[in-house]
Amino acid sequence: PQQASTVTVTGAGGQIAYSLLFRIAAGDMLGPDQPVRLRLLEIPQGMRAAEGVALELSDCAFPLLRAVDVTDDPRTGFDGSRFALLVGARPRGPGMERADLLSANASIFGPQGAAIAASAAPDVRAVVVGNPANTNAWIASSAAHGVPADRFSALTRLDHNRALAQLAARLPRPVDEFAGVTVWGNHSATQFPDIDHATVGGRPVRDALEETLGGVEAAQRWLDEDFIPRVAGRGAEIITVRGSSSAASAADAIIAHVRDDVSGTTWTSAAVASHGEYGVPEGLVCSFPVRSDGTGYRVIEGLALAPRARSRIDASVAELVAERDAVTELGV
Ligand code: NAI
Question: Is 160 a catalytic residue?
Fold first, then answer.
């Protein structure tokens, strides 16, 4: 029998974790042959909720689930971890300025990065979900001395899937006929969902949109006025309609992000540390088109960018630079 893989989930008492943990334990993330050991990391106020989730995990009698440990100590939480899913974060409270939010999160993700470096498995892969996800990933990675920056990523797969779903509904075509959709930049309102290299049934999505919508201008108008704002604003729409933020869809995106990272994919979106691709400053954790051969996401290079796309990417990257500079100035 295979040795169990240790998966750490932070924010384990929260709403995303409540959808995520059961799917990991069922084998949806690492496959039906891979036993898992779950480590649930919380803060003291969240411990009771996490302990309750552990009781329910036990009650499912999942054949692949070998152990569940609940802790509020990061060193213990990341001990031997092969997959570190950093979901817990400090939400923006009433009257909280952007600098307060960045600093509160820096004091979470810095120590967690250090704990990952100190106690996780040598081949650990860390995925940051808690917002501001890209900058939190940059903070954790910067504090994880000795862990290569490409072991850290931030989740933009939910944005990617939202883009796919909007296209599939508008054309209308099945989701699995699409390829080459990309979300660039920050996981924020400045993100750029891009269809310029996308195909549906092997044909350019732009051609299919022009046919369905009745011309070049109508297609571009739909992209600029409906598609991009709808995808970028979907998180807010979910809060308005559901009364709380995306949870099951976020958990599903985390599952897909890790599954494609370890089992391989020819094209998806993920935020990874830039090596300078597409002029994005080195080290910034930016969403790109990525592929994986099973050893981690790599940026798909060499795509031609139209001026309209270039300026949208530049605006989102400028926001990432400003977040990084604000954290650096805080000196946390
Ligand atoms: P939640 O508020 O239901 O749960 C968060 C949990 O994290 C709480 O139980 C809290 O006690 C815990 N926590 C806080 N600080 C912690 C720390 N230092 N260590 C361990 N646990 C800690 O929030 P929810 O809905 O589960 O969302 C979690 C995060 O994911 C939020 O920051 C949210 O904005 C973000 N998010 C990101 C998405 C993405 O696509 N990247 C999509 C949806 C949400």
Answer: no
Q: Is 30 in the pocket of ligand 1 (CB under 6 A)?
A: no
Whether 1 has a pLDDT exceeding 70, the answer reads no
Residue 202 to residues 55, 198, 207, 212, Cα–Cα distance (Å): 47, 9, 11, 16
pLDDT tens figures, 12-36: 999 999 999 999 999 999 999 999 9
- Is-contact 251 129, C-beta < 8 A? no
ipTM above 0.95, yes or no: yes
Active-site choice (145, 160, 187, 275): 187
By three-state DSSP, how is residue 321 classified?
Answer: helix
Q: Tell me what pLDDT residue 93 has.
A: 84
CA nearest 271: which of 224, 319, 305, 308? Answer: 319
Q: Could you tell me which CATH class the domain 5-154 is placed in? A: alpha beta
- Distance separating alpha carbons of residues 298 and 301, to the nearest angstrom: 9
Assigned CATH class of 157-325:
alpha beta
CA 317 remoteness from chain centre:
17
